[in-house]
């Protein structure tokens, strides 16, 4: 009973949380309407049962008419059968609505996060994204789930009110006035609940961000002895989340209490008035039994309406976070139309020229300058860079990402089989990439080799091993232009020398840029560009620059200037 496309979730309405929820409902119109229809049938059959029982008592038991008793008993049995079928179908549609809303939200959020790329961590906290995937999708799904029972509750309450008005005008008025009155009493509870839930969601997002920061930097924290400090901060923020949760629970408990108390008061009132009318002869015994049955039945649709109000409120809070992410725009506009470029790449701000088919090294006095050049060449920042005379902003972003790969120290390993993590178009290319990165020994030490499952972030590997595996992944991708930022900073000198020699051979004839100050790597480059204060001040072979440019020699040998 799949009713939503897996590959294309559609374009969401991100103007407001309410419009986003309405968009979800419109996209799932078939299942939402189907669920509501079955919900109405399911609830209406229950609403008709007290009337059927009352008729059986008046025409069968009181009148001692066996045929009438059997007839109305058969009607009651038929209503029960219809209710059972309708209940199953309503539940199926409700689950489909939940799954459709939840996973469509995951799809549109993930798709937009992919479109944002490097912009996402700059604009949206990690906790925000984590909270969407953990809690918010569930609340949005619940809002679609409740539509089936909510529609049935509304129709059944109206139906019961009409039946009571026809049977007894005072009792009908009690129900029709009492239901809106209870809704008016519940409304003031929802407002503070909405505020407290939104505040708790914000605090949970901040706490999730803090947790992510602590986990990712745990080794550094242990190295500098900062574990206790961050643990203390985490405890403080955790207590703030707990306090906010208590405030939410306080409002929630009032709502839960109202779900029991208010319908119970209505039941008691209707039963009391009905009993007085029966004693006065204004209604029959069967009608009194029906009124009592209706009073008990009304508890369920009334609780469903208050539950719907609660779930829609939570969904509105959750949708606010989703809309916030969807309204985040990429830093780089994708306005290009060209898909191909060839020739030398020129970074005008620094004066760097990267000639095609050569291994170019960038040695910068400041690592930040080298990283900035790498970002510009890869078009992670919008600046004056040309490729074969064509401004790179005229190329589409997908084309740039396909042709130019920037591998910096911030890259991460993901969980899953190591073979899939490294990639490569063939087994040979995969093995060559591992060999070039001197990572073959890492694979050999794993119990299942390339088929071994690695943990998130490659936590089972040392820093040097992770770096070599990330380098192998970049090499296996085999892009037209490969830009490596400090690819050997965490390995020993012997391994670094082997990687430098193998890298030059592996990428022979293809454009490669390496940002490094390692003499071992610089010595194998076809050309070295020395960057000082953000500008290229000298170019040439490593040994020539070492002999003729004192500032360069100081930078790569790490000696103090005289």
From TrEMBL:
Keyword Transmembrane found: yes
Keywords, ordered alphabetically: Membrane, Transmembrane, Transmembrane helix
Molecular-function GO term, any one: ATP hydrolysis activity
PROSITE patterns the UniProt entry points to: ABC_TM1F, ABC_TRANSPORTER_1, ABC_TRANSPORTER_2
ABC transporter domain mapped to chain residues: 323-558
Source organism, top-level taxon: Bacteria
Parts of the chain that traverse the membrane: 20-49, 69-89, 146-165, 171-190, 260-279
GO cellular component, one term: plasma membrane
UniProt topology in membrane: Multi-pass membrane protein
Every ABC transmembrane type-1 domain range: 33-314
Subcellular compartments: Cell membrane
Name this polypeptide is given: Multidrug ABC transporter permease
Organism: Actinoallomurus iriomotensis
